[in-house]
Amino acid sequence: MDIYLSSAYLPPVQYFAKLVSGGRCFVEQHENYVKQTYRTRCVIDSPNGMLALTVPVEKFATAKCLMKDVRISEHDNWRHRHWQALASSYFNSPFFEYYQDDFRPFYEKHWDFLLDFNEALVEKCCELIDVRPSIQRTDSYVQPCDMTETCKDFRTSLSPKTDWRCDGEFVPAEYYQVFAGKHGFLPNLSIIDLLFNMGPESILVLDRSISALEAGKNA
Asked: Which strand (E) or helix (H) includes residue 43?
């Protein structure tokens, strides 16, 4: 089965559920960049509730820009702000101490292209979760495909503007969250929320998020 995804910045649990589902994953690099999506935005838990962190990008010379050509801006000291937000939100989580040295370098180094930055972060998350999905970039733009047994296209539907409940193949399993006593469980946050809270057990949560649907059907 071929799975098509857009590039994403520290994408949500739903995105990683697709990566570990067993198919070949293709990240679209020839689509036109779209604002206000997971391409530049992740959502974490914070003392005040859900917090969106957005990577700024440079203005385009033309009206449209292919994803592979989108450059990261250094506007507003965003790397420092993002790391401070992650550190202050997850300092008391069970696994922040173990993983902080894995993620801090991403916010100390200058990255030219958004696609490279996102890809490197996804690879690091896969390494820490101990999964090795088949991921490659598209060679050319792939036309939208029907959702079949051989092709799953989530490039548009997997979006902060689309309720995860619309995804019939994903049921977010609950797990420990630092601020659950204050906010309740917040489903489908960034994968970094799952890693900092659950560590090596993150893969078990991902597996349950996929298998829960079948369990519900068979109940």
From this structure: strand 41-46
